[in-house]
Design brief:
It is a single chain. The chain is mainly α. About 50% of the residues lie in helices and about 5% in strands. It has a two-stranded antiparallel ribbon. β1 and β2 form a beta hairpin. The chain is elongated and about 110 Å long. The N and C termini lie far apart (about 115 Å).
Amino acid sequence: MAKKPVGVTLRKPPPANLDAFVANDSHIRELARPEVVVHSPRGNELREMTVYLPTDVARKLALYCHDADRDPNKVLSEILERELSANEPEVEVAPISLWERLRANVIEAVRSRLAFGL
């Protein structure tokens, strides 16, 4: 007995409401990659970040880390921390004169006695 041929047709999808799709941004949140935070054994939080290095620099880093038996992440972290802290503006602290310290001590002593009702 021969099988009946099945009629296959392509159906048109229902018309999409583009304004509703754009207004509902849940699809964007689903596609967005969540930030990866790892806790190191020392208790530090580490955030995943992709860094692109020139081939020769990446090779030098890999050889250095292999020879020194060090983690490349730790080496890069130390280098970046040193570089970023070197570029921070230095805050100038004016030295406190002897008279200003004496005045502050006297004011503190008077306030402490006033607090106790002396």
